[in-house]
Amino acid sequence: MKRGGGRVGLAVSAEKTAEAGRLEAGEGVWDSLVVGAGQAGLAASRFLLHKGIRHTVLDAEPGPGGAWRNRWDSLSMADVHGVADLPGLPAPKASAEPANRALPAYFGEYERRFGLPVERPVTVRRVEDEDGLLRVTSLDGEGRESVRLTRTLVNATGTWRGPFVPAVPGAGEFRGRQFHTVSYPGPEALRGKRVAVVGGGASAVQFLGELAEGSELLWITRRPPQWRSGPVDGLAVVSRIEAHVVRGLPPESIVSDTGIGLRPAEEAARRSGVFERRLPMFERILPEGLRWADGREERVDAILWATGFRPVLGHLAPLGLRTPEGGIELRREPGLVQGATTSVRDPRISLVGYGPSASTIGAGRAGRRAAVSVERFLSGRGASSAPSREA
Ligand SMILES: Cc1cc2nc3c(=O)[nH]c(=O)nc-3n(C[C@H](O)[C@H](O)[C@H](O)COP(=O)(O)OP(=O)(O)OC[C@H]3O[C@@H](n4cnc5c(N)ncnc54)[C@H](O)[C@@H]3O)c2cc1C
Fold first, then answer.
1. Ligand 1 midpoint to CA 351 (Å)
2. Taking the CB of residue 276, how many other CB atoms lie within 10 A of it?
3. What pLDDT shows up at residue 236?
């Protein structure tokens, strides 16, 4: 049977193996632990179950949905750029329903239907080596610590918990309000305000579209925005990012690399001229506004940082996976799109939803690939059964 190919085959196998995933929870050594139950973690768990690999999924959220639970209320299923199906269950289509309701419901249905062994809220704090096994320390919702041992680990922690804001002098003195994408309060809270939206990606453009009717806007980007001029060549984008991570360089964001297109929802913003009036990055934040290198000053009431995210990998630090360049070198899998998931320094660790697989479509493919990598390691066919990093 073609593994993971057909929905029927997977469903039958999941029934047989769901129980295996739950067996001996908390006892002995797990064959694998998945950290994070977003798109990438659920896909990985699904394929691990399919292979009968005993594992559990630890997720920091109080309920299903991964990062989608926390997206702002005005982001509808019509606004998202397209959410790929989890393996074996079609994703909700474009609609007016908020993504932070539709996708958690979909993920919850997926977990139930396939009997995925998700434990939550469990936040992994540290992953350390212990005599060739991985020692995983976590906190539950009441702050109680627990420790699990596992042979392999699939990291699927996404980026939402790693908001990035550039360091700009004066930020602490600003008297207005500052938000990041993760805390975007919606257009009503910013109505009548003069708002600086910082960032050149899709989120910034969506915010400008939403705020154009009720707020006075400044758009600020570090580099000229990459307007999309034709269809996105997804393979080229992913291949470029993959080429980075297999060299151990920090990954760039897929979403930012696909370029920005304007949708009907951004029409009011386009008419207001905010896109043409774009400003370069300011050099200082003042108590009441912003100052540029050429002396220009603008008063603003709020700064909205749509400046992206960094992968959430701090809990893996004790394993010393990072290269001097700050990335995690992944093993190249020739001929496989989004196939690079296994750490070169420590083949017990797979990273999914990272680098080339940091999109909903990539997350599914990487989940499948990670399960293959785990199986390979457990059967002794990994590159090495011990990590190759220096002590
Ligand atoms: C604003 C925005 C819009 C986007 N829109 C699209 C889109 O339209 N289409 C698209 O394909 N992609 C989109 N993406 C990218 C996409 O959301 C992700 O790449 C994709 O959902 C993969 O999810 P994930 O499973 O890697 O991570 P997440 O959905 O972030 O899930 C990670 C999970 O890990 C948990 N976690 C984190 N740290 C720990 C820890 N230490 N211990 C335990 N659990 C932990 C989190 O709580 C979360 O449940 C968007 C991203 C952003 C930021």
1. 13
2. 8
3. 75
